[in-house]
């Protein structure tokens, strides 16, 4: 993980934003087995450069950079660029700095790619994932790193552990959301965050509302709260 942003944002002159996740297995951030155990992932945005805004962190797919030089990640593949993204990491090259640098990809379920040309253009945003969310595609527990394999059929969106969430909502990094302080912001700037509110013990329902915040610029974050607001 040398030179990557915390959470897997691509390295380089203008690094991509890191992702925030909840996972079931410990290990180094980029340990493949640990990455496969993620049940929630909130994406980071692609790094900007002087000639191009990076793509915001997305929901099912990350956004391309403003002028489409860095592509966003999807549910089954990383974003393409001069350096492609990866599963859990944005694309970037730590050797490209100074006048030769460019924007790197944001991290996510799959990371975005860096700018496809070595010039002042931005990287793509990462994609996000919630186990059980419609449109998501869960990785197989026994998937190799290359080529990766994914679940299919009725439970395509459900993590291999069987843990899933219901009544979920994703908000991408170019939309309004609540900040940690309770004010509205477009995308989330700053460190990632997670908020979990427990049901009162007398409530037997397992219905959960999940709200995500995605970084618009550099570092990703999301908030998870249940029947709660700030």
TrEMBL record:
Which E.C. number(s) belong to this protein? 2.7.10.1
Q: Where in the cell is it found?
A: Cell membrane
Lipid bilayer topology = Single-pass type I membrane protein
For whether the record's keyword set contains Cytoplasm, the answer is: no
Which terms does the record give in the GO molecular function aspect?
ATP binding; transmembrane receptor protein tyrosine kinase activity
Enzyme class name: transferase
Under the cellular component aspect of Gene Ontology, which terms does the record hold?
A: plasma membrane
Which segments constitute the ALK/LTK-like glycine-rich domain? 3-198
**Annotated Pfam families:** ALK_LTK_GRD
Tell me the InterPro entries matching this sequence: ALK/LTK-like_GRD
Q: Which UniProt keywords apply?
A: ATP-binding, Cell membrane, Disulfide bond, Glycoprotein, Kinase, Membrane, Nucleotide-binding, Receptor, Signal, Transferase, Transmembrane, Transmembrane helix, Tyrosine-protein kinase
Q: What is this protein called?
A: receptor protein-tyrosine kinase
The organism of origin for this protein:
Trichomonas vaginalis (strain ATCC PRA-98 / G3)
């Amino acid at each position: 993980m040398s030179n990557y942003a915390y959470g897997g944002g691509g390295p380089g002159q203008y690094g991509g934003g890191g992702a925030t996740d909840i996972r079931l297995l410990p290990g180094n951030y980029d340990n493949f087995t640990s990455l496969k155990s993620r049940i929630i992932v909130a994406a980071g945005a692609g790094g900007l450069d002087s000639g191009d805004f990076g793509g915001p962190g997305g929901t099912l797919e990350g956004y391309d950079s403003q002028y489409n030089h860095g592509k966003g990640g999807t549910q089954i593949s990383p974003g393409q660029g001069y350096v492609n993204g990866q599963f859990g990491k944005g694309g970037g090259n730590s050797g490209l700095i100074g006048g030769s640098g460019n924007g790197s990809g944001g991290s996510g379920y799959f990371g975005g790619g860096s700018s496809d040309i070595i010039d002042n253009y931005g990287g793509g945003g990462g994609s996000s994932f919630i186990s059980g969310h419609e449109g998501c595609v869960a990785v197989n527990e026994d998937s190799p790193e290359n080529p990766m394999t994914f679940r299919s059929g009725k439970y395509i969106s459900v993590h291999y552990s069987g843990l899933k969430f219901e009544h979920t909502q994703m908000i991408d990094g170019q939309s309004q959301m609540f900040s940690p302080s309770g004010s509205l912001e477009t995308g989330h700037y700053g460190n990632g965050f997670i908020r979990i509110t427990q049901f009162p013990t007398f409530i037997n329902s397992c219905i959960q509302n999940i709200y995500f915040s995605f970084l618009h610029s550099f570092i990703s974050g999301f908030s998870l709260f249940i029947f709660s607001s700030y």
